[in-house]
Give the backbone structure.
Amino acid sequence: MTEALLQTLAQRFGAEPYSAVSYVGAPSIVVPLNQLHDALRFLRYEASTRYEMLVDLSAIDEAGRGGGFTLFYHLLNLDSAAFLTVRCPLFSSLLEVPTASDIWPAADWYEREVYDMFGLRFSGHPDLRRILLPDFWQGHPLLKSEAGRATERPDPFGYDPESLNKILQGYMNPEQGDDGEMVVNIGPNHPGTDGIIRLVLRLRGERITSLEQEIGYHHRGAEKVAEFHTFHNYIPYTNRIDYLGGVGGELPYVLACEQMTGIEVPPRAQAMRVMLAEIFRLSSHLVWISSLGHNLGAMGPAFYAFMEREKLFDVIEEVCGGRMHPAFYRIGGVAQDLPEGWKRNVLRSCDAVEERIPELEALTTKSYIFQTRTKGIAVYTPEQAIDWALTGPNLRACGFDFDIRKKLPYSGYEQYDFDVPVGTDGDAFTRTVLRIEEMRQSLRIIRQVVATMPDGPILSDNKPRYSLARKERALEDIETMIHHFIEVGRGLPFPRGESFFPTETSKGLTCYTLVSDGSANPYRVRIRTPSFAHFQSVKAVGVGDVLGNVICLIGSIDYVLADIDR
Amino acid sequence: MSPWLFWPLITIAMVVVILGLILAAGFTVFGERRILGLLQNRYGPNQAGPFGLLQAIADAVKLLTKEYFLPGFVDQKLYKLAPVLVVVTVLLSFVVVPIGKGISFAADFNVGLLFILGLSSLHVYGIFLGGWSSSTKYTVLGSIRTIAQLISYELAMGVALLGVVLLSGSFSLEDIVLKQDIAYIFLQPFGFIVFFIAGIAETNRLPFDLPEAENELAAGFNTEYGGMPFAMFFLGEYLGIIFISCLTTTLYLGGWHGPWAESYPLVGVFWFALKTLALLFFFIWMRASVPRVRWDQLMSFGWKYLLPLGLVNIIATALISALWM
């Protein structure tokens, strides 16, 4: 962000740089509430660097840091991959915030989530309801005053008859008229939705006249859970956010922690991280191609893809010990060194996948029926892609060459030679082609990592204050033993500050925003997931299409339920 | 043969054939699961009996012993009639298929082909009524698709068959087989293609399994069926596949013709079974390989490609046979 822009913002909107605590990861400005809407509109449409995409919107309950709330908006300029965090302090939850959903349609669900979690209201919002929690839920969970444990809550289980009745009514057709339309519930349990999610369709024949999504069935309160864990202990939760992405989900979290504390990761650990993240990207894409195939009625791809995924998991298991949820990354490095003979195994799995890719292509992108089912189907225009904050392959399919691994390399991605495939049509077919090409590129990266794997330590030791004591030494000297025992249980106080880190996971842009108040637990963890934004956009593209195409659409945008609901 | 002997014998033969066909359908299901397993690098059912051969029986027993459940919101008469219609129409169709020289119930029935076309339309009624009488949304959508599918392939199918009728000069399946010194697939390649694609659509198999497209419509027309009635639909579907394979064999692949089939009719049965099994394998192979088309794509394919191709085929056949034969 340039000085000039900062000047303009300061003059026109009274914005000033955020300086209360150190904030790393992106420039950050504070805008007063009465100027917020104008400032956001200015940033999207008029600023010299246009921040055209709303990546994330959430809030912090400042009860423990001086009271009130802070709303924050993460904005993104695609060309220069520049992030900007706009903060807006609120002194009370009674204040109404002007909605940003008229600037970015994607703000719709984010604002509903803020309302759901914090009770903040947005004026002018088209449909301000709860989104992740059921309508009859009492309280707003991310408030600091809310209990974090179920046992501390007043009788949390069971529906009262009235609420239950209301839910059941929601499944009925409210106005059963003779207008030739009918309401069809796809889900919560349906073979075509890849998980528990509900689409309420209004159909005329097979054409969809209106569509509404209902999410939250998979909500586990990951962000609230974080506040009761130490920084180090939270890692296993992060790979369950996108449960197909494995360590890919751990990466932004540990990187955000390291950015906040200044821990430097040794090169070997960085290379291992890249290798494992790419292996998981492969495996996630393999699952995706099988589920898209399945959504279109093809049985074949699922079996072929899962066979190769199994071979990748063999490697993962050998290196990490776990399969889908390895919890392998540590703040400052990785959990353990590579086992003997890892090179041969990794390369063998890579070869196996590479040999299988042409078969997968023959069953999908080269199949005539698959082409007719996906070409020109579920098309996002570039404007829609920006409006609805698409990221990852879905964004690249619309013609944007945007990959954080290239634009803002992290964890040593800049050392590896790989291409970012970009499409033009924005349809389901392009998304398929791109993901298959991405698999090839991932293989390239993995092979380069294998060839250039540096020697050296796998855990950093430049900031012992924020790193756990070494387990392997704990049984040898009593000092380490004591520290290890205490620090694993109580955690290590992290410095006061905030940290924001975006990474490119298999589905798109996953960002972690960490807030530390100087204790051993995060004050607030905000997880921005690509699936949430992608699934929100189904409404924009699905209406007016036919039923079969919508099944193709939701298959092709690659979402994972846990990644939507967190 | 005296009528006193004729009717008991015919009854016994009918029972034997019906049981045989039902078993054949059961083993087609088993064969499909094993072959799909083979094509997809997995085993398939291999636990019940040697090579899993008893799986078909086990499935049948399981479905037969399930509770008969009648949902409260259905149109009871049609709901019960639909599965019966599906099975009976296919079983009846087998009557006119000659499986060897002189081995059939009524292959010399002089409008055999029309009889089959009529029954195949009734068969579709079974599926349509099943979905419609269940009166839930997915089943109704399945039913609508069934009709959409019917009008897009039925005409093409009939037109394709006329080519065979022109060449053989008869609607009787026995005559058609006897006339095939050269299998009609060589004389009627386009007719064969049109008929077989329409046949796949008729049996609701991938890539045309739109009425029950599970990813879109849960289970389509049979969503509300369970236990025995569901088993009847299942049976109907697989009998349908067997029947379309038999019919294609009869009309285009020379029926029971083959070496020594003239002098030994049982050898003819062998050839007939072999050709039918090859077509059955093709059905299963398709299922393992292709995605599903969209219903409007099937309609436009039926009207824009299949029907014109069939018409061109029949005009060409008529001209050629008028000028040269």
Observations:
- The interface with chain B takes residues 182-184, 190-192, 203, 205-206, 293-300, 303-304, 307, 363, 367, 369-370, 372-373, 546-549, 551 of chain A (CB under 8 Å).
- The domain at 222-565 of chain A is CATH 1.10.645.10 (Cytochrome-c3 Hydrogenase; chain B).
- Chain A has two domains: 3-144, 222-565.
